[in-house]
Each structure stands twice: as C-alpha cells, then as structure tokens.
Amino acid sequence: MISAAESGTRSRPVVELVALLVIGCGVIALARWGHAGASADGGILRLQGSAFGTTWHVTVAGAPAGEREQLQAALAAELERLDAVFSVWRDDSELARLNAHPANEPLTISQELMAVLVLAARIHRGSAGAFDPSVGPLVRLWGFGPDAPAPAPAPPSQDAVAAVRARVGFDLLRLDPGTCTVVKERPDLELGLGAIAKGHAVDALSELLVRRGKASHIVEIGGEVRARGHRAPGRPWRVGIQTPRAGSAVEARIALPLRDGAVATSGDYRNFRELAGQRVSHIIDPTTGAPVHHRTASVSVLASSCAAADGWATALNVLGAQRGLTVAEREGLAALFIVRRSDGGFDEQATTGFATVLEETR
Ligand code: AMP
Ligand code: MG
C-alpha cells in the first residue's frame, strides 16, 4: 500500500490521513486534496479524478493555478485514450479486440500495447510464470470481479479449476515486436493487464506532464506512483508505504523520498473474499490455479518505470517472500515484502536494493 505524500507532511496526525483515504487500493494522499477536480496553493497544483475503476491524483510543482483546467482536461483525455487501449470492461478497446480475435491469425496491434505485452512477457519469464496476464478466467472462477456473486459461493471443484486452467497460459500468445503482430494459440485465451496497465498509465501521465513542461510532479493511480523532480528545491516528494491492514486505519510505515522513480505495491489486504471461512486473495498462482496462500501481505517495488514496478510487485506477491526474495535479488529489484506474523504483527524483508534505499532514508 502506497501513499503519495509531499515532503514535510510526515507529522500530520493519522486522523487527518484517515479522512483522506481513497477507495480502490486504499491509497492515502497526504496532500490536502480538494473536493472538486483540482486545487492549487503556493505553486502546487493538485488534480484528481477516477479512471480504471479507481482514483488518480496528480500534484504538480511550479504550475500556475490558471493552468488547472487545461491540465485536468489533458490528463483526463490521456486516461480515456489509455482506457480505449487497455480496458477489458468495454468491447471496443484494443485489448478486448485482441481477446475476441480468432486463434492462429496474426493481429496487428499498437506499439503501445506491444510494449506493455513485451514487458509482461519479460516479467512472466523472470518470475517463472508467476506473473501471467491470462489468469482472468481463474480470477472469476474464484469469485472476483464485478459479476461475482455475493456472498461468495463455495470454492470451485478441482475439475472446474483444471478445465479453466487449460485456457490459461501467457505462452499461448506469440509476440512479434518487429512486425507488431500477435498470434493467439487458443481462441479463448483471454488477457487482462490489470496488474501492469495502471503502472503504464502512471508513466504515460508523467510523460504527458513532462511534454507540457511540468518537470516536477507526482502521479498516482490506484496506489501506483511515479515522481519526477521535487516539490521545492531541496524538498523531495515523499511516498509512504502503509502497514498492510484491512479496514480503514491508515498508518504510514515508511516514508520514502522519491526523486525520479516509481513505486508500486501489490497486496491482498483490501481485495480479498471470505470463502468457506477462509480469506481468499484475488491474486492467483498460475501454477496451482488457486489464490495465493502465504503470509506475504504486500510487496512494494521501486523501479525507474511504474509499469515495471507494478508488474513486478504483482509477480513477487504471487511468489511470496520466500521464493520472491530470491527472484527479486536475481533480477536486481528493489523490493520490500511485508509479511504477517502469527501474533498479528508484521515483519519486513527487503532486497539489497531496497535496503540500500531504506538506509539512505533513516
Ligand atoms: P495488482 O493490484 O497490480 O497486484 O494487480 C491485481 C490484478 O492482477 C487483478 O486484476 C488480478 O485479476 C490480476 N492477477 C491476479 N493474479 C495474477 C497473476 N498471477 N498474474 C498477473 N495478474 C494477476
Ligand atoms: Mg501490479
């Protein structure tokens, strides 16, 4: 769980943070967000809205209040454009068209979708298949998604899981970046990029701001964050990693200064269901076809691109701290695992890269 914060706000009382809880990934924005779409004070412009079924927040340093409406409209238009590429909740998106495409017939896709699929394939390989954007049918089978029945039914039978697993596997998609074409090996292969597209969208909004001369900003969508520049000379942006507890209490566990970089978190403490008295995560382990079942409550990854941070956070969350730490070290990732103890507390396990960043902040 990540909270986007501005330097100097660490001493704000927790009670104020609770009031600022944003639904979705449970992100807290430590800045003073207004109720309208945007607010500004002292050269700091704050903009917010909803997209991808969650909320977004952007803070820009050194922007005159007069630019607010223009920037708000440009960011909203960019998010709408991204939705038309990556959404699986509309039939006319590029990804929905890929999902509806027949097997064994090459489909030309945009460079942007190809770039995200290539990154997803890299993370799929690097995580030995733990990250798999084709798990959507399994996610639904386990009762997640907007059309899931409530209350949740009993867990699916082994036969039902096996039947759905036959159509799951990112290797069933062949990518040819040279010609920007893809081939599905099964007609019912279904891709969902919910574990990486938010991070890509954060990168895209950040690029948009740079193109408009707004070099110092922090962008957050549903908990995935990217920062550039600084809030003010000598005052970096700060991002808080929250204690992964369900419920409304918000507790910033670590406040990281973020100059030019991204941080993303994958956790099971907000999006889970109770199935036959058991807590069930919405993250599926493709090797078992079942929700992950380990003590890792959240994984945060620092990276230069938010798409990579987002994808890897999910991949490492599938693997859990035990296996994930080895993979993260091998991949040279800066990752923090927050692991539940049996007494209700939490332990932190960091890779060498993340420990170095923590050292610098303490
Ligand atoms: P995140 O919050 O970024 O960890 O991503 C959550 C999304 O990832 C949800 O939309 C899930 O449907 C999807 N998901 C679940 N399991 C996996 C997996 N093993 N690989 C990739 N995406 C997954
Ligand atoms: Mg993710």
Give a brief rundown of this model.
The chain is an alpha+beta fold.
Chart the SSEs and their pairings:
Blueprint: E1 2-5, H1 14-19, E2 28-29, E3 38-41, E4 44-51, E5 54-61, H2 68-86, H3 94-100, E6 107-108, H4 111-126, H5 136-141, H6 158-165, E7 173-176, E8 181-184, H7 197-211, E9 217-221, E10 224-228, E11 237-242, E12 252-258, E13 261-267, E14 272-275, E15 278-281, E16 284-285, E17 290-291, E18 296-303, H8 306-330, E19 334-340, E20 346-350, H9 352-361
Parallel strand pairs: 1-2
Antiparallel strand pairs: 1-11, 3-4, 4-5, 5-9, 6-8, 7-8, 9-10, 10-13, 11-12, 13-18, 14-15, 16-17, 18-19, 19-20
Helix pairs in contact: 2-7, 4-8, 7-8
This protein binds adenosine monophosphate (AMP) and magnesium ion.
Mean pLDDT: 86
What is the percentage of strand-forming residues? 25-35%
Order of helices and strands: EHEEEEHHEHHHEEHEEEEEEEEEEHEEH
- Any idea what the radius of gyration is? 20 Å
- Dominant shape: globular
Strand order of the largest sheet: 3-4-5-9-10-13-18-19-20
User: How helical, in percent, are the residues?
Assistant: 25-40%
Q: How many β-strand stretches?
A: 20
Characterise the protein shown here.
With 362 residues, the protein is α+β, with helices and mostly antiparallel strands. 31% of the residues lie in helices and 27% in strands. Strand 4 (44-51) and strand 5 (54-61) form a beta hairpin. Helix 4 (111-126) runs parallel beside helix 8. The model is unreliable at 1-40 (pLDDT under 50). It binds adenosine monophosphate and magnesium ion. Magnesium ion (MG) is lined by residues 195-196, 264, 266, 310-311, 313-314.
